Each structure stands twice: as structure tokens, then as C-alpha cells.
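Quick one - inputs below.
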Amino acid sequence: MKKNYNNHFHNLVKLRLKIIRPLLFLTIVPYFCFIGVIAFKPEEFSPFIFDTNISLGIFLGLLLILLIFVITLIYVYLANKFIEPKIGLVRRNE
Amino acid sequence: MNKLCLSILLFSNLSLASDGNGENNHISIIMFILFVSVTLFITYWASKRSSTADEFYTAGGNITGLQNGLAISGDFMSAASFLGISGLVYLTGFDGLIYSIGFLIGWPIILLLIAEPLRNLGKYSFADVVSFRLNQRPIRILAACGSLSTVILYLIAQMVGAGKLIEILFGLPYYSAVMIVGGLMILYVTFGGMLATTWVQIIKAILLLFGATIIALLVLFQFNFDLNLFFNEATNIHIKGISILSPGGLISDPVSAVSLGLALMFGTAGLPHILMRFFTVPNAIQARKSVAYATGFIGYFYLLTFIIGFGAIILISNNPAYLDSSKVLIGGNNMAAIHLADAVGGEILLGFISAVAFATILAVVSGLTLAGASAISHDLYANAYLKGKQSEKNEMFISKLATILLGVLTIYLGIIFQNQNVAFMVGLAFAIAASANFPLLLLSIYWKKLTTRGAVIGGSLGLFSAITFVILGPVVWVDIFGNANPIFPYKYPALFSMTITFTTIWVFSSFDKSENGYKEIKKFDSQYFRSQTGIGIDAKTTH
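Output:
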């Protein structure tokens, strides 16, 4: 079964990589930074932010939960808006 | 089914009579019976729609993105994470957050790398994807071993936790609690298949999110929703004072930190009961949506457990009504959320949350059992043993048989492990998922040069090393077997076992110059095309 690897498919793969790579980076790097601070320099997370009683660690941790959700939203938005039409193009030209 | 309802009623009445503190139990039992009746009715309804293998394993692929998102969160948010994480926050403050984030960080990985290719290539189990272009028999056996070890370890941990929790909440004896959970799970899955399991998970997710929201709102209400005041109060009350707002001793050395991080990040993407849920939606678009919904629900849920844990510090850690003589929470730290429900919402909320905890256990074990059953019937029996040449009816029969077997085995193991420390088992399940299931799935989708030889050798070594490192490590070798020093020094094996898996797969695939290996590499392009576009799903694939 020979599939024709046309330009449309190449464009699709390229676009998908372009979307996935930065989002993957945005997932893995902040997470391991967070874990890294906890392992190497836990005291960095102690100070309060601004003049509240909320520590930097808790603030960043909650922010990370939010970031994780936002990453999934961004991907779904971009995939539906840009990747799906490209898949449609491949389908029509198959 | 009516008989079972009756026997539960009977059990509950018995326990009420023997226990004495009937008033608390009353509301939770009514709510629990309501949940069981509704879910059994759904099972009856679903049983008429679960006659084909497709319906049994995937609910016919007609679940929407939102429904699946709810069901995934219902599958994933276990009683252990609800009670365990809020208990950990109660005890240590900040450190509970490390686990919450860890359990959430796997979801973008699933979304970005796995969900869509999985939906585009597979039918019933993730082994479909791994064996797409590789040699069916060895790959199916390996994937089923990975699935079954993950599922059984997870099941034991859930079951033992369930037995103990129900013992405390409902005053039921441990054995009957384990048998009721096992019995209901067998009923849901054998008669209602994926459709009933999905709805049990959806209802449970809604109940759990609702219940946790109510507790959190009632807690924050007492502080006029002022987080500043809230954290200030918590640090004033907690023995450790201000240090609960920063990292404690949960992770101390860098190797453990990275290792635990890896297991959580990539383990989620290798959990068979989670992966199976992606076959219930009609296409990759819905699969994608369901992850975003699930991530939202699960993330929101962990925010709530964080508030609940801190709320418990403020409202119950000094209240003698919830403490035993040595100033520890009655029933242990994992009861923080339950006691807090009583403190802020009285016995109605306590009853509701207790029933929700029970429902949560049922939903999680049902999903696990279904995934385990499909590994036995679809991967081992139909594809590895009969090489795909069997009737669908036969496979259905085996899957129902496998469900009952797994259910009975789980009850049995739940009883055997009653007094063992099973907390490490979920960790081990994640380590196996990250070291065997996930690498196989990832490389089979994206790495052209993967061959059967590399996959089988690397995958088996990953599975074997994850288990061995945990057994020889501090948790089992020292804490459980009572030896003085661990042979493997770290608590979390994933950093090492994942390295072993990826390296051996790479080495043995790259040096595989066999004819089969060559053929498998040649099949990659068409597989990649289908995984990226979904074109060809409906066409019959010949392998």
C-alpha cells in the first residue's frame, strides 16, 4: 500500500511540529525548574510575594497548574484552527 | 442486581446496628444506595447496548469530547488522590502541591504526543498501536504484561484503601467492604461494558467536583474569600508554622526529584485505563478536546484539595472532636477532607462526601478492570493466542470471563494485602507505565527504526527493572522486608529504568538487520501518515 507523500502532508507534519515543540518546551521546562528548585534550593520558595502571606512557592505552584491547563487550551485552539484544515487538504488530495 | 442492592442494604443495617453511631451513617448510606441504584439502572440500560466487541470496549465510539473529559477525570481522580493529597496538604502544606502538579503534568504530554495518534491507529487497546507494524504476538504479550501489572498494582492499592475507608466511614467490616466494591465493579463491567463504566465515571466526577467545591467554598466563606487571611491563619495554627508554605522534606535529593518527576510526567501517558478512554470518542478532534476538558477538571480539583487541606489545618487540627488521644486525626491524616466536610457542612455534607468517596472508588476500579480485561481478551487471547482468527462472540465471552476473574483476584488480593503498606504500589504502577508502556507507545508512533526485537528486549527490561529497583529499594527492601540497607538506593526508579528502556530499544533496534526488521521499518511511512491524518481508519487493515 503506497501512500502518496505529497506536499500537503509534509506541510501538515511541519505545522504540527511547529505547534507542538514550543508547547512541549513550555510543559517540560517550567515543571523541571519547579522540581529543581525544590530539590536544590528549597529556601528560594520561602519568601512572600509582594506584601501578602502567600509564599513564592505556592504562588508559582498554583500558576503552574493554571499554565498546564492553558497549554492544553492553546493546543486545542491551534489544532482546530490550523491543523484540521491541513488534514482536510491532505484528505482531498489523497 | 436487585438481590445485590438488598444485600448491601442488609449489610449497612447490620453495621448500623453493630456500630452505634448510626446518625452519621444514615445519610451517607441513603446517598450511597441512591448512587448504586442509579448506576445499576444505567448498567441495565447499557447492557442492551453492549453486545458487540466495539460496544463493550469503546461504548461504540460515540462518547463526546466533554463526556469523555469528565469520564477521564472520573477515571483519574481516585479516592486516594482526593483524601491522600488533601491529607498530605493538611500534614505538610506545600509538599501536597508537588504531588498535585505531578499528577497534572502528564496531561499536556498525553495531548501533545499521544492522544491523536493513539485514536488514529488503535481500536481497543494501546497494544493495537504498538503492534500496528510490528510482530503481533510478542508485542501483544509484552504490552499485556505492562498493562496487567499496572492495572493489578493500581487495583490492589485502590482496594485496600477502599476497604479501610469504608470500614471507617460506614462501619462495615473490611471483608464485606472489599467484596461489595469488587461485586459492584464486576456487575458494572461485565453487563454494562465501557458504556456503563463511562457513565459511572461521569456521574462520580460530577459528584466529586461538586462535593469538593462545596467544602472549599464553605471554608473560604469563613475568611470572606481573603486568601491572605486564610494562609495567615493556617500558618498561625500549624505546628510547623510558616514553613508549611515552602518545600518540606518530601523531595530532598536531586536524583529522587528528577526520578519522581519523570515517573509522574510520563507515567500518566502509559496508564492503560486512561489510554483506553481515547477509543470511546469518534475521532481525533474529540480525543483532543477530551484531554483539555479533563485537564481543566483535574486541575480545578487539585486546587480544591489544596484549599481543603489548608482549611483542615485551620478548622479541625485544634478541634478535639476530630482528634484522638494522641492529637492525631481520628482515622489518620487521610481523613482530613472527611472531617472538614463535617466541620463546615454538618452531617449532611459528611454523608454526601462519604458516599462520594465510595462512588469514587467504584468508578476508578471499574475503569481499571475494564482495561485489564481488554488486555487479557483482546491482546492475549484474541491476538496473541488465536492470532486474530476468532469470532467476536468468543472474544466477548473471554472478556467477560476475564472481568470476573480480575474482580475475584482483586477481592482476594485486597484481603491478602489488608495489613500491608500498599502506598508504594501506585508509585510502582506509574514507574512501570513510564518505563515500559509509554516508551513502547511513543517510539512505535514516532521512531521509524523501531523494530520488534528492540521493542521486546527494551520493553521487557524496562518492566523488569522498574519492578526490581522498587523491590530492592528503600520502600520494599527496608520498610517492608525489614532489611537494614537498600540494595538500590533510591525510592523512585523511573530515571534509571526509563534510561534502560530507551537505551536498549535504541541499541537493539538500530542493530537489528533482520529481514523482519527491515520490513517493519518500511511500514512506518504509511503508519505515520495514518497516525497524523486519521486517513484509513475505516479501511480494513491487514496485519
